[in-house]
Amino acid sequence: MDEDFTPAERDALYKAIFSRRDVRGQFRPDPVPDEVLNRVLLAAHHAPSVGFMQPWNFIVVTDPAVKSRIHADFTRATDEAAAMFEGERRSLYSRLKLEGIREAPVNLCITCDRERSGPVVLGRTHMPAMDLYSCVCAVQNLWLAARAEGLGVGWVSILHEDALKQALGIPERIVPIAYLCLGHVTHFEATPELETKGWRKRLPLEDLVFRDRWEGEG
Ligand SMILES: Cc1cc2c(cc1C)N(C[C@H](O)[C@H](O)[C@H](O)COP(=O)(O)O)c1[nH]c(=O)[nH]c(=O)c1N2
Fold first, then answer.
1. Domain assignment present for 158
2. Domain count of the chain?
3. Mean predicted lDDT score pLDDT of the chain
C-alpha cells in the first residue's frame, strides 16, 4: 500500500498544498459553475471529524445585498482592529487588503452544529473543542480542492460573530467557523501576501519541531 499514489499524484497533492494562497484582491467576477462548487463542497464533507460527527453546514452566499451587509461589518471590525496596533504597524495594517467579500462571486460560511450527534461524542469526551477543529479540517480540505480546481479562497475573520450570525440567520446554538470568499482568480501569488507586504515571515520549520518533549520557551 506504500505506493498507491504515483509520484505524479503525490507531487500534485504537494503542489496544491504549497501553491494554495489566501486570496483577497485577485478575484475575477465570472461565476463558479455549480459542478465545481459541488466538488469542493464534497471535498470539505470528506474531512475527518471527531466521532464521525460531520458537524458542518455550508451556507453558500451569492446575494450582493447579503455580501454588502457582511462587508459593512468587516469595515467596522477592521477599523477596530487597526486601532489595536501601534504606529507603523497600524499604518501597514490599514494598507493591507484583508478580504474580497464583494468581488468574489461566492461567499461561503462553514458552521458547526455542536449538538449534531447528541451530548456524548466519541473523541470529544475530554477535549470539548474537537468538533470545532473538525470543521476547520473541512475548511482546509475545501481550500486545497479549490486550489486544484484553479479557484482562490480567502478566509475573512475580521467580523463580529453576532453580526455574521444575524446577516445569515444562523441560530444561536450554531457556531460560525469560517467565512470564505471563493472564485476564479487572475493569478495566485507565489508567496503569502503578509510576507511580501512586510507583515510577517514564514518561520523556519526546524525552530518548530521538538523531540520527545517541549524544547521551546516556557
Ligand atoms: C483561521 C484563519 C483566519 C484568517 C486567515 C487564515 C486563517 C487560517 N487569513 C489568511 C492568512 O492571513 C494567511 O493564511 C496567511 O497570511 C498565510 O498566507 P497564505 O494562506 O499561505 O497565502 C486571513 N486573511 C485575511 O486577509 N483576512 C482575514 O481575516 C484572515 N483570517
1. yes
2. 1
3. 97
ipTM of the complex: 0.99
Please identify, by atom number, the ligand 1 atom nearest to the C-alpha of residue 199: 16
Average pLDDT for residues 119-139, to the nearest whole number? Answer: 98
- Ligand 1: residues with CB < 6 A are 21-22, 24, 98-99, 155-158, 192, 194
Q: Single out the residue of 64, 80, 74 nearest to residue 98, CA to CA.
A: 74
Biggest CA–CA distance in the chain, Å, is 55
Best substitution site from 17, 22, 180 to test ligand 1's pocket, by max atoms within 8 Å of Cβ? 22
3-state helix, strand, coil in the chain (%, to 5): 40, 15, 45
Is the pTM for the entire model greater than 0.95?
yes
Closest-lying ligand 1 atom to the alpha carbon of residue 96: 26
What range defines the domain where residue 99 resides? 39-188
